[in-house]
Each structure stands twice: as C-alpha cells, then as structure tokens.
Amino acid sequence: MSQVSEGQGEHCPLCANKQRLVPLWFQESTETWIKCDLCQVWCHASCLKLPSEECDRIDEYHCPECTKSYGPSIYKVGIRKSQREHSKVNYADLENGLTGNPYKWKRVLDSKLFQKHKFRKVRGEQLTIDWIRWFGLEEPIIIESSDGLDMKMPHKDITVSEIAEAVGYDTPVDVIDVSTQQEIPDWNMYKWATYFDGPKRDQVLNVISLEVSDTSFGKSIVRPRIVRELDWVENMWPLHTKNIEYPKVQLYCLMSIKDSFTDFHIDFGGTSVFYHVIKGSKVFYFVPPTPSNLKRYSRWISSPEQSMTFFADLVKDSYEVKLVAGNTMIIPTGWIHAVYTPDDSIVIGGNFLQGFNIRGQLAVYDIEKRTNVPIKYRFPYFEKMCWYAGKYYNEILKEDPLSLSQWELKGIVDLALFLLDLAGRFGSGNESTTEEQQLIKDNIPEEISDPTRLTKRLSRRINRIISQGNVDFEEELEDKNHNLKSRSDNNSGKAWENSVSGSTKIKLRVKRRIVDEDHERRVKWTKTNNSVPPRPSPYNYSIYSYDENDRESSTSPTPEEIVRVEQIIKEKIREFEKEKLQKLEETEKFHWEEI
C-alpha cells in the first residue's frame, strides 16, 4: 500500500467531476491519499471514508472496484479488524446512575402503537391566508412538495461542513446527548461539523436549536409565504428596533444523526412551527393539545419520574407522521410532539406566534411560568410581543374589523384579558412585588405610552364586534337533483358537498360577514369620496375539492363544477334573504299590533 500526504498531479476519480468540499475532519495542513496496490489508482482517503489511522493499519489496499474481484484489503500482521463494534460506555451516565444507551428510544418506539394520522395534505398554492381563515390552524398541515410555497431553501446536497463555513466555525452550538436528553457544553460549529461529517460517532448527538437568521446562511433562506404572512414578529414588531432587539426564533437549522430522538415537548410560548426536510427523514409522534392532555403534560414535565415515563402512554390518542426530504409541515400551537430521526438529516425550521390560536399560546406561556421553565427555553420578549399584537389588533378593529376571522376575534378577547391583567399589576393596591411590577413595565414597548388606555380600547372594540354576532347558516338541505347534503361547521359557517364526479366532492363554505355601524357610515361617505372602497358583499364563500375521506383533494374543481355549485349557493342565499325579510316583516307586524 502506498500512502502520501499530498497527491501531486493526481486526480481522485471519486470527486474529479464534482464540486468538492473536504469535510472538516480532514482539513489539516495536508490531505491523505491512498493508492490501490492492484490497479495503482490514487484516491482521497476522505472520499473513501477512511481516516488516517485506518490507512496506517492497512498493508495491502484494495479499492472498491478491485475488492469485487480480489477480496478486501489485507491488514498488517498482529492487527485484526473486528467484524463487530465494541460497545461504548458513557461514564457520565454511569456516575448519575443512568445507562447511556441512545438506541433505547428506538426500542421504545417500536414497542408502541400509534394511530395513523388524518391531518390535511395540501398543495403549496392552496395554503393561503384565506385558506387558514376558513379552516383555521388547529391541526398539523403537511405539504409534500415545495411547489407553490414561495420559499427558498438550501440545495438538497448541502453538508454540515458547508453550513459551518456559512454560519462561522466559531459559532457556539447547543449539542444534545440523545441518551440522556441533556446538553453537552463547549461545542462550536467546527467541532460539530467534525463530528457530523466524520466517521467516528461514539455518541448519538443532536442539534435542534441553531438560530441562523443573522448569518449569511440564514439570509439566503426565505421562509414559506404563509409563515411570513402569519408571523407576528414579521408583521407587528417595529422594523427600526430589530437592529437592537427582537425575538430571534424565526429560522433554525436542525442537524440530526441517525437514531436521534427528541422527547415529547411543546414549542416555547405556544409558537407554531414550520418544518422543511432538506436531507434524510423524520418521524413525528403527536398528541393533541386538549385541556386534559395539557394538564397531563404539565404534571409530567414537573414530575421526578419524567425520565421513567413515556408520555404517550399517559394519553388516549397519539399520531405518527413520517416526513421525507422535500416535505414541509406546519405544526400549530400547543401540539405535544416527539421526533425520531431514521436517517442523518438536515432540516430548516422556525417558530412563530400567530393570531389563529391566541388562547393556546397564552395557555402554554402560563404552563411555562407555573412549571418554572428556564428563561433560556421560553419565547423571548413574549409579553412585549403581546403588547405589539394588542396595538396592532386595536388598529385593525378600528379600521377594518371585517378582515378578521372568527378564530382571530375569539383570540383577541383572550389577548385583551391577558393585557388587562398585566396592566392591572403595576397599579396601587395589587399583590405584585416591586420586582414583578418593574419586569412588567420593562416589557411594555416605548410606543405604548398608556397601556391601560390601550387595553380598555381594545376590550371595548372587541366587545362591540362580538356583541354584533356572526350569522351561521344552520338549515338542513337535501337537493335530490344535485345530490346535495348539508353539514354544519363550528367555526366556518355552512358547508355543502356536491358529488359531481365519482369520488371527488365539491365543498362550498359560506359565512355571513360582520357589518358594523362605522362601516355603514363609511359606505355613505363614499358617495362623495371615492378613496374609501365600497361595501363588500355580505357573504363570503370559497369552493374546495375533497376526496372520499373528506380531506382536501389535490384535484381542483372543474369550471363546470364551480358554476354548478355557485348556482346552488346563490339560490340558497336568496332563500335565506327571503326568510330574513319575512321574519322582519312578522316582527314589525307584531309590534304594530301591540301598539
């Protein structure tokens, strides 16, 4: 066997036609080459995944091609290449009375039964703000292709070494020992890339909290359009203060070794998460955030027996979701989940607060405070972000309340109560300590000079909107000619299904718009001033295609199907308006009879 430190004038056939970045664990002052003793071809040891120590142990090297005909390489006398891996002992775990076995999680997962998920799978172009306004954001959403998401992600062949170079080799990184689910101190990106791209993996380690927004790597990434439109930080946090402070949680790079596992958790502050798999695959285990499940979770994370108890055993329903490279998923507020990594993977993700489950976000924040979650693991500037949201929604309620969905209106009620409670804590006659009052004041933005006044205005405006009500259609309809049947939807008004082409169904959702007195006055004013838009139609409706399982189909309704269903709905709207007029006339007649 021939071995040199530099291959002068040679070209490695394994990487000659490829753009090559040598892994960091081979980036020394020189690079090791090795020559096949049979075909005399030189190759980079790094391309063969051979560390220099392994090269030293070989007496006669056979390249992969020659191995097929002449057998494996011959090792030096007295040195035996073991055919099985020796078990490694994690002594830190032994000292703490633990068995440091990272593979225990796989055995546990294989022994459990999880339900098959029924979460929506949608196309990127379908996932819009209007879609969220109709369907809400209560369950995970899976997008199998990046098409239509209007995002920009790293290329699918990116390596951890490239990421380390882009974010900076000296960048600190939190590394988790999978066997104990504890952090290992004193790691940077150089050391992490050396481990991840190298051949020596004495432990199964995981990185899930590398925030990259302010790096050149992060600046080359664009989050999905729907995330940018939903994100409170993106839309409400003042731009001029982002150079000073802001919740830097919008963009993470997750790098996981095969068999990595993250135990059950809720993302901080009840944030929603977008999750895009660049390389490898992931398996999620979801538990719905019902009130009873959240109580169990709160007790579990506070229990000294947490490490001895698999959380999914404590609940009734848990669901399995598998993602592969190219898949994207949106995880809504409060969903309790664990994550297993079947293959080495690189993922781009990010956290965001949004207005479609404000109550859930506040509930998770309360759990974190009651269970004394360290500040490091909470959403940064959570209360300050809520004040900005209160200011934002106060303006929306004043200028354009019709643009808000029922999900948002209900959430604003909870937000107003939360801010009222905060504002009431720094007045006289309350039980808050001086330190607590000062902390609350520090989290009130400078732009809000009178927080008490803001909370009262927000409460008054949302109460006025809610008191006007939202009219949902509840009548049952069965049209034999069109094979139409009616279904009620708790939050999105009325849904009708029209079986028009085999197993494909057309669903039409109709919701009555809220119209307030201010808007009526604005409409009258437009007669003399065209700068204000005319009054919108009192009805909103959207048409979606569904499959036989009542899940949104990838097949769009045909123009003929849409025309057909629109005609039906127009007839129903006329019927509802006629009934409404009849009820009004009957009321007026009764009133005159009383007089």
From TrEMBL:
InterPro entries xrefs: JHD (IPR041070), JHDM1_Histone_Demethylase (IPR050690), JmjC_dom (IPR003347), OBE1-like_PHD (IPR047578), Znf_FYVE_PHD (IPR011011), Znf_PHD (IPR001965), Znf_PHD-finger (IPR019787)
Domain JmjC span(s) in chain numbering: 212-369
SMART domains: JmjC, PHD
GO function term, MF aspect, one: zinc ion binding
CDD domains xrefs: PHD_OBE1_like
Catalytic activity, reaction form: N(6),N(6)-dimethyl-L-lysyl(36)-[histone H3] + 2 2-oxoglutarate + 2 O2 = L-lysyl(36)-[histone H3] + 2 formaldehyde + 2 succinate + 2 CO2
Cofactor(s) for this UniProt protein: Fe(2+)
Gene Ontology CC: nucleus
Keyword list, A-Z: Chromatin regulator, Dioxygenase, Iron, Metal-binding, Nucleus, Oxidoreductase, Transcription, Transcription regulation, Zinc, Zinc-finger
Cellular localisation: Nucleus
UniProt xrefs under PANTHER family: PHD/F-BOX CONTAINING PROTEIN
Similarity field: Belongs to the JHDM1 histone demethylase family.
Full protein name: JmjC domain-containing histone demethylation protein 1
Organism of origin: Funneliformis mosseae
